[in-house]
Specification:
Largest sheet: 9 strands, mixed
Number of strands: 34
Number of helices: 14
Structural class: alpha/beta
Distance between the termini: 34 Å
Shape: globular
Oligomer: single chain
Length: 600
C-alpha cells in the first residue's frame, strides 16, 4: 500500500519530532559511518558520541528518521525481541537504532535477530519479557543452554525438545472470528465460473466468518449492490449461517466531497464538502449512511458493523486518485505547502462526523454497531479516540499498515488493548495485507498483545496477476489460486472458532509465538504455534489432562512458508504430543476431549 500517512491530532507532535531530529542530526549520520556503532563498551566515553547501552555503543531514537539512512537502519522498540536479545538482563533502552538485515548479511560478530543486526551472543536473552510480549510465558529455564552452560547453534536445549504448556485456568477475550474484504472485486467474482467453489473454500472449508463490504450506494444505483448480495448469500450457504458483515467506504459520494469526486489527488481538497452557511456537511453524511443501510436492507444485506470512513487519517500519493476522505480527529485547520507557499486549509472532524452518523442511525430498528476510528495503524488510533464520546461507537477498529514483523511494536498494541478496555470498547483489527509468514505473525500479535477479537485481511479475493498482492486468494482465467496468506490465516480460522476464548500458553527454550483457544463447552482446544526463525525446532505440548488422554486423535496441520507444504495434515507423532516445526512455519493442533478425530 503506497500512501502518505497523516497523523491527525498528532500534528503538533510531528513538529516536536522534527525539532528533535535537528538536535540529533549529527548523531544520526554516525549510524552509517561511526565505526563504534554496535561495538562492545564499558562506558559512553568509548563510543565516540554514541551511548554505551547494554554494553554496546548505540543510538537511542524516537522514529526511523533518527537513524539516518532508513534503508540500512530502523528504530527498534525497546520492547522488541531483538532489543531483549541484545540487552539480556540489563535494563533495556526505550528504542535504539539497529541495522536492518536478512539472515547472513550482518557484519562479522553480529546476528540477524528479528530483522535487525545485534551483537552475536552478547548476553542471555530476557525471555521472560520477550515471551510475555508474544503471548507466551516462559517457565524460568535459561533459553538455549546445554547441560554445561554453552549455547548450541539452534538455541535448543540439547537434552530434549522445547516445551509448550497450555493452561485453561484463565481465559481472555472471546473470539469473533476471521475474514476479509471483497471491495472492488464484487462484480468480477460473481461472474467467475468458479465463484461458488471459491466461496465454499473460504467459508466452508476454511471457517472464515466475517466479510467486509464497501458501501457503493450513491442514491440511485441500488443495482450495483446486487453483486454483494449474491456473494453474501453464497457465503451464508457455505458457512451454514450468515457471516458477520462489516460495511465501510473509501470515500463518501461525489456530492459530499470538497473536490467533487470519491478519488483524491491532493490533500487540500480531500475532505468533506463545506457550505458557506452551515460548514462541513455532517448532516449530509449521516443521511447518506442511513439511506445506504436502507438500500442494502432492501436486498437482504443487514450489516452487523459499520465504519463511517476507512483510513480517515490517510490520503493517497499525489496523482494516484484513489478513494479517500481525510478527517482530522476534530474539525480544525492544517498548514500545507502549496508550491512553496504556506496555506491554511480547513478539514472536517472525525468526531463531528461520527456524532452526526451515530445520531442519524439511532432510530433504526436494528442499527449496526459502530467501529471507530479505523485508522491505518494502531499508533494513529489514539489521536482520534481521545476526542470521541464513548457512547458514539462500540468497537475500536485499527489496521496494521507500517508494521514490520521483525520489530512489531508490541508495547503499542498492548497499550491500544488497555485503552480500549478502559473505555469499555472491544477491539478489532479490520484491515491488513502481508505475505504468508507475516500474516501469521501479525495476526498472532493482534490477538495476543492487543487482545483483538477479530482479524481481517484486506482482501479475501484479488484479481491481480501478481501472486504476492497480499490477498488470501487470486482469481485466474481457469479457476482460482490459494495464496500463502490464505494458509496463514486458515491456521487460525479453521480451528479457533467464533465464541472460543483465548487461554494461557507457557513456552520454554526459544522465542516461539503460541496462542491457544478453548471452546465454550471446554471440550475442544486449538493451539497455533509459529516458528518465525529459520531454525527447525522440535516441540512437545503439555496439554491439560482432559486433552492429554485424547492426543492420539488430534488433528495436526502444518504450513512451511516458501515451500510446497501448505496446510498439510500430519499424524500425531506419538503419545508425548511432540512434533517438528521447520523454519518459518506454523502448526495448528486441534484436540478434543472426545476420543474420535475432530475434523473442522
Amino acid at each position: 500500500m503506497t500512501s502518505q500517512w497523516i497523523p491527525g491530532a498528532a500534528f503538533g507532535l510531528l513538529v516536536a519530532a522534527l525539532l528533535s531530529c535537528q538536535t540529533k542530526g549529527d548523531e544520526r549520520a554516525k549510524t552509517g559511518s561511526q565505526t563504534n556503532w554496535l561495538q562492545s563498551c564499558d562506558t559512553s566515553a568509548e563510543c565516540g558520541g554514541l551511548e554505551c547501552l547494554c554494553g554496546v555503543c548505540l543510538l537511542e531514537c524516537t522514529t526511523d528518521g533518527d537513524c539516518g539512512d532508513q534503508g540500512t537502519a530502523r528504530c527498534a522498540p525497546g520492547m522488541s525481541l531483538a532489543v531483549s536479545e541484545l540487552c539480556g538482563d540489563a535494563p533495556a533502552p526505550m528504542n535504539i537504532c539497529l541495522p536492518l538485515c536478512r539472515d547472513g548479511d550482518c557484519p562479522g560478530g553480529q546476528d540477524c535477530e528479528d530483522g535487525v543486526c545485534i551483537v552475536a551472543s552478547h548476553g542471555a536473552a530476557s525471555m521472560l519479557d520477550a515471551s510475555m510480549r508474544s503471548g507466551s510465558i516462559p517457565d524460568g529455564s535459561t533459553p538455549g543452554a546445554t547441560a554445561d552452560g554453552d549455547r548450541n547453534d539452534s538455541g535448543l536445549d540439547a537434552a530434549g525438545p522445547l516445551s509448550l504448556e497450555i493452561s485453561t485456568d484463565t481465559t481472555y477475550q472471546r473470539l469473533l472470528g476471521f475474514g476479509g474484504g471483497i471491495a472492488y472485486v464484487e462484480d468480477d467474482l460473481v461472474v467467475h465460473p468458479d465463484a461458488d467453489a471459491l466461496l465454499t473454500t473460504l467459508f466452508g472449508d476454511s471457517g472464515f466468518s466475517i466479510v467486509r463490504i464497501r458501501n457503493r450506494f450513491e442514491g440511485d444505483n441500488q443495482d450495483d449492490l446486487l453483486s454483494t448480495a449474491e456473494i453474501l448469500q453464497s457465503a451464508t450457504t457455505a458457512l451454514g449461517q450468515p457471516p458477520l458483515v462489516l460495511i465501510n467506504q473509501g470515500s463518501p459520494p461525489n456530492e459530499l466531497k470538497a473536490n467533487g469526486q470519491r478519488g483524491c489527488s491532493e490533500l487540500a481538497s480531500c475532505t468533506l464538502r463545506s457550505q458557506a452557511d452551515v460548514g462541513f456537511d455532517y448532516a449530509g453524511l449521516a443521511e447518506h449512511w442511513r439511506s445506504s443501510l436502507e438500500a442494502h436492507a432492501a436486498l437482504g444485506i443487514v450489516p452487523d458493523y459499520l465504519s463511517i470512513q476507512n483510513n480517515p487519517n490517510w490520503v493517497p500519493d499525489a496523482g494516484s486518485a484513489l478513494e479517500a476522505c481525510f478527517f482530522l480527529p476534530q474539525e480544525g485547520t492544517m498548514t500545507l505547502d502549496d508550491g512553496g507557499q504556506a496555506i491554511t486549509v480547513s478539514f472536517a472532524g472525525y468526531r463531528d462526523a461520527l456524532e452526526a452518523v451515530s445520531t442519524g442511525l439511532a432510530s433504526l430498528a436494528s442499527p449496526p454497531k459502530i467501529i471507530a476510528p479505523d485508522t491505518s495503524s494502531a499508533a494513529e488510533s489514539d489521536g482520534y479516540t481521545e476526542v470521541l464520546a464513548a457512547s458514539t461507537y462500540d468497537v475500536v477498529g485499527f489496521h496494521m499498515y507500517g508494521a514490520q514483523t521483525g520489530v512489531v511494536d508490541i508495547a503499542e498494541l498492548e497499550r491500544l488493548g488497555r485503552s480500549a478496555e478502559l473505555s469499555g470498547h472491544t477491539l478489532m483489527q479490520t484491515e491488513m495485507s502481508a505475505d504468508g509468514l507475516s500474516t501469521a505473525i501479525l495476526a498472532h500479535h493482534a490477538l495476543t498483545a492487543a487482545g483483538a477479537e477479530a482479524y481481517l485481511a484486506t482482501a479475501l479475493v484479488s484479481t491481480s496477476p501478481e501472486p504476492d498482492s497480499g490477498a488470501l486468494t487470486r482469481l485466474t482465467d481457469s479457476g482460482f489460486e490459494l495464496l500463502e496468506p490464505y494458509y496463514a490465516l486458515r491456521h487460525f480460522a479453521r480451528y479457533a472458532r467464533p465464541g472460543w476464548s483465548r487461554v494461557d500458553t507457557r513456552v520454554s527454550g526459544a522465542p516461539l509465538l503460541a496462542s491457544a483457544w478453548l471452546s465454550p463447552d471446554e471440550d475442544a482446544l486449538a493451539v497455533i504455534v509459529i516458528n518465525p526463525s529459520d531454525t527447525e525446532l522440535e516441540l512437545q505440548l503439555r496439554l491439560p489432562a482432559p486433552f492429554e488422554a485424547t492426543w492420539p486423535s488430534a488433528v495436526v496441520e502444518r504450513t512451511v512458508f516458501g515451500t510446497a507444504e501448505l496446510g498439510a495434515a500430519l499424524p500425531p507423532s506419538d503419545e508425548r504430543a511432540t512434533f517438528t516445526l521447520p523454519g518459518t512455519s506454523v502448526v495448528t493442533v486441534s484436540v478434543s476431549t472426545e476420543p474420535s478425530p475432530q475434523t473442522p
